[in-house]
Write a structure and sequence with these properties.
Layout: E1 2-11, E2 14-24, E3 29-33, H1 40-48, E4 55-60, E5 63-64, H2 70-75, E6 78-81, H3 93-100, H4 104-108, H5 110-120, H6 122-126, H7 137-150, E7 155-159, H8 167-182, E8 186-191, H9 194-200, E9 203-208, E10 211-216, H10 218-222, H11 225-230
Parallel strand pairs: 3-8, 3-9, 6-7, 7-8
Antiparallel strand pairs: 1-2, 1-4, 4-5, 9-10
Helix pairs in contact: 3-7, 5-7
Amino acid sequence: MLELQKVSTGYGGVPILRDVSLEVRQGAIVTVVGANGAGKTTTLRTISGTLPLFGGRLRFLGEDLAGVPAHRRVERGLVQVPEGRKIFSSLTVLENLELGSYTSRAKARRHGSLERVFSLFPILKARIRQPGSTLSGGEQQMLAIGRGLMALPHLLMLDEPSLGLAPLIVRDIFSIVAEINRAGTTVLLVEQNVQQSLALATHGYVLENGTITRAGSGAELLADPYLKEAYLGL
């Protein structure tokens, strides 16, 4: 579904990613793990089209994305849920969700998408008229994921969904991500929470200093002695 071949990019001419290659197959949950500053968010921004390529190739559903602007990528089903939620705090829960379905394809199916989101996150239906600013951190993360689902993604990219959340809420968020995947949405997840994200993953990559250093199934990476020592403290 998604393929990065020797992708390099950065900010202001300063390279952050160097020759990053990875793939996401349809129906999978692929996790990219790494420390803060490793380049995980930069990877997602490059895929989304908010950062230009310095070099390499990026393909989605067989199409080369070079020159395709970010909003056109969303129309093609490539949707990112940003780090830090980035909800519209002055708008209601319903308004935030409706903004997620701005494309013509998603707008035509808005009612069914709302029902799907409310079935995944019943608390959002209970808060439907509340401003986003009144929600807890966990509820805001649910709203951000729900807004992403409203765009009818073929590939849903999640940037640090566990960031700043209590352990019980993190468990619930990962459980919902698994449910979204079982319902047919492919997921690309970037996380610092190595244990839980790799336990969820079909396949995983380790990103360090802008370079992929390890790859394998989630189970293989969790059993890797280097990861156990460097990331899990074992």
